[in-house]
Structures are given as C-alpha cells and as structure tokens.
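Please predict the structure of the following assembly.
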Amino acid sequence: MTVEPTTESTNFIREAIEEDLQTGRFTYVQTRFPPEPNGYLHIGHAKALCIDFGMAEAFGGVCNLRYDDTNPVKEDVEFVDAIQEDIQWLGFKWGEQGPLYASDYFEQVYQMALQLIVKGKAYVDDLSADQIREYRGTLTEPGRESPFRNRSIEENLDLFRRMRAGEFEEGSRVLRAKIDMASSNINMRDPTMYRILKTPHHRTGSEWPIYPMYDFAHGQSDSVEGVTHSLCDLAYEDHRPLYEWFLEELGLFKTRQIEFARLNMTYTILSKRFLKQLVDGAYVSGWDDPRMPTLCGMRRRGYPAKAVRRFIDTIGVAKKENLIEIELLEHLVRDELNLSAKRVLGVLDPVKVIITNYPEGQVEEMEAINNPEDPSAGNRKVPFSREIFIDAEDFREEPPPKYFRLAPGREVRLRYGYIIRCIDFVKDPVSGNITEIHCTYDPETKGGYAPDGRKVQGTIHWVSAHHALDAEIRIYDHLFTEPNPNKVEEGKSFLDHLNPEALKVLHGCKVEPSLAFTQPGETFQFERKGFFCADLDSTAGHLVFNQTVSLRDGWAKIEQKK
RNA sequence: UGGGGCAUGGUGCAAUGGCAGCACACCAGACUUUGGAUCUGUGGAUCUUGGUUCGAAUCCAGGUGCCCCAGCCA
C-alpha cells in the first residue's frame, strides 16, 4: 500500500512553534541544521534534517545549513562537501546565503568574550585540565572556585588578548565564564569558553590560536542569524540554561531551543565516533559501504531518498528514548521500489537445466512485463533456448510438503517461458551438489500459459545459458547481530556484535542480457529475489549489483516454522 | 543520597476530561504466471497506588522504573 508522507501530522515541536507565533514571541520561523564536519551524515541526522527543514518549511521560514566547526582537531573539508551532497540528495534546500559556518563568527564571538570579561563575567584560568576537573566537584558535591577566579578585569583582558596573540602554550590557560561553582547544573560551574589550540582550521587557516567551545559559539551563532527555533538533541537540555545565560549577559536576540529524542534503530549503531571506528579499522570499505547507516551508504545500497524521508515522517517526534525497528525502514524501501523498479530475471546460484525435447540451436524471444505495478513501463523480450540456468534453491531432489518448485517428475512454470517437467538430474557424487537437471517442455504452454487449464503451482525465474551475462552480486544483511549493539556487557565492545555475514559476495551469477549497459545507481527487481542496484564498481565488462533489500519471502517463513 | 528528562499493544507515534486509534511486526485467510504486490480478518497497550470528576491515558499527590549530565568534544 502506498501512503503519502504524513507531513501534516502534528507533534510537540510544531505545537510549541504555533504557540510562539500566536503569543507573538516570534513573528517568523527560522531554524538551522548544525552539523560538525567531522564525519558523514547518517540516518539519525536525517531525522534532524527532516525536523529542522520540515518545521521551517511548514511555517514558511528558512532553514540554514551551518557547520559547527569550532574544533579544527577533528574537522575536515572532506566532510563539509559530503554533508552538502547528502542534504541535497534528501531534497532539502538551505538558506540563500549558502552554507554558513560558526567559524564565520570567530571575530564576533571573540568580541563577545571580551565583553563578558569587561562585565566581570569571564576570567582567564591557569588551572590545568586535571585541576579544573577536580575543582568542578561531583554530581552530588558542589565545586570549588579557582584561585584565578578573581583576577582583575585588566589582567583578564591582557591575558586573553595574549592568548589570542598566540603567546601561550596549548593547555596552559582557558577562558571561563564566571557563573556559579555550586550550581546543581554542572554546565553552570564556570564552563570553559575558549581553549588554546594551535591546529590550523580548514577555513580560517592559522589565523586563530584559540577556539571557542561549542557552548560558547552555538547559541550566539543561532542568535546572530536570527534563528527563532533551535531544535536539537535531548543531550543539550542541560545546556539550555547556559545558552540563555550567555544571550542574556550579551544582550542578544533570544532563540528558543527545543529538544527531541534522537533516533536509534535496531541492528544499527548511530554514533559518529563508532562509525568512524568502523571505517578507520577497515571493518567496512568506507563511509559509503552499503552496510553503513550513513546516507551515502544507503544511497549506494539503493535506498530511495523518498523512502528515507517517509521513514522519518512515519516514526514521529517525541522526547521518549526510542529504538525503531529497522524492518520499518526496509518496508518503506520495498514500498517505494515496488512501484518504480524494473523487473528483470537474474539467477544468483545457477544450476544448468537442459530441455531435452527443445530443438538445439533454436532461440525464441519471450515477451516479459517490465513492471506489473506500472503498465506504462512496457514490455521487453527475453531470449529462451534449450539450455537455461535456474536458481539451485528452486530444485529439490526430495521436495518437502508445500514446496511448489521443481523436483523429479514435477512440473513448474518458467516465468514468461514454458511449463517444464523434470525427468532426470545429475548429482556430483563427492559434493552431493546437483550439477545438471534434465527437463522436457510442453510446446503448448508458450509464455507460461496452460491452454488445458491445468494448475501449476510454482513459477520460477531463469535465464538462457547462452545469452546470460555474468554478474557479481553482493548480498547484505544487518551490520550487527544484536538488536541493540549499544548494549554491551562488561569488557566487550560494539565490535563484538559485528555480523560476519553482513556481506556475501556472489560470483558467477547469471542475469538477462538486457542488463548489459546498466549504469551505476540503476535499480531493479530481480523477480522473486529482491531489489538490486548497480554498484559504483559496476562496468559493462563486469556487472556488480548490490542487493538493496530482499523481497518478503513467504516460503522462508513456512520453512522456518518447522 | 545533586540536577535535568521520559513512561500508551512486540516497536514507534496519536488520542489535549467523553467509545484508546494508525503504521510496522505478528497470526489466519483470499487472490496470484514473482511463495512479490494487493485484499480481508484476528489477537494484543495506558508503569503503580490513591485522589478530583457523571466520566481520567489526559488533572492532582505519592511511589516505581528507565535515560542524560562531572571534555580544554559537539
């Protein structure tokens, strides 16, 4: 069934924005999507994307793309380019000013720091990182004030300017907000505003030896851009009072922050840090490995952008911790592809069938439907001949009950072909594998129709041995074996739950000749098997297909029950 | 034994004092030249205790459980 995205459904964020408009707190709506360019976007970011861009669009506002690039140690241009590509793939358009950067505001933010120093609300601290941690106290005990907390404004100004001038070593000093070391909210215990970092920045080069912390840049960046609603992860709930304190002290426009629960998905890990570990440790082939939950991985896998968008719309938005079943995403991927994917015949695990009463050298062009869900997709010809390949699992020497496929003495229909009957087979005495199947065909059943009205339960796919193209097919399964790979026992890591069978590469698969000039990214349904798309690695001389998602398999279910 | 947040079928989201509904999953069946798709149907939920009310998932009070916070990361 096809369901339109339920973009009209309400949620607590939409209601809050409506209220802000009604009460006059804001007269317009503006949001932002603020990624740090330190990794590739994943399905969790798609949720944030849909909320940030979706809310702006719903209220006729703009959503800016703004990189939170305040830590040059972890960031890289590779990521800023990739992030833009992924956002566009999902179909979102950021504000007309183009991509923005927190680093655009470094000078402004520096001036803000100076302002706070002058107000006596910030000070340079010479304590080491370890000492600062000690002085911070614990969750249940208040912290202690730094001995440097009460330096004069002049000294603070001088020291901070010299930090900016690059006079001090990394780690030797920081600038801190002077708030309340006894606050029950640890974020208010004189948080660090600036640290010394001599690493060059991907945009500002070596201009700055100091960089603002995210907490001292994010809120003001929102404010400077006129962002009305800053929609973010629950993790920042505790930071909201700090952002509000900065805006208040600085006398800036007050953005409203609203937090929502991030996405979690079964059999998946959605932490940039862990995903980076998979890439750096070569557990996967890269950020765009089709097993990865990254947007580029899903794109390469063949997931339609629309399926990803519908998925996010379907799961909704709330503040409750959640673990979404990956089956929902897979359902939506099938639902989209079912309508659009061209049907073709492909044999993954070929076994030769010889039709003994079919004339040698004869070839017939059989009429095949391209997409039963879309009559406008038209028909195509598929060559039929005396020797064909079928999938090994479509033949059983001893068929179990309800097995409707080929078996000794039994009839089966070749899709768009003929009805054939198995009269013999050859078995390798060593391996026990079936190496050849002999059948006869009924010449009266061309196209698969039985003029006598006889019932043939099974229909299987096939390709003409002579005309078939070789292909490599990559079959994917969930990357992890545990529904929640984040939950790990003592002494173990998420890596212990990696699924060793998440990728199976099949060589020597046989596909119909119409696939000869397939372009990377083209999607198909291999009938009875699943949806596939030509991989980036695919060429005319060496076809490579990714299994996007398998078809629902009723027979597998019947077998499982036994 | 600090602070912040969250509790509705298996999963996720609705119901905003008035018959607890939708999607996925699950189960049964129909149809079928894809054991796909489609169609029909079944089962199953308000954390707990008390209170307010004609009436509570919703309001109030207490309890319980789960998540987040002690980076010079974001």
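Chain A is about 25% helix and 20% strand. The domain at 346-461 of chain A is CATH 2.40.240.10 (Ribosomal Protein L25; Chain P).
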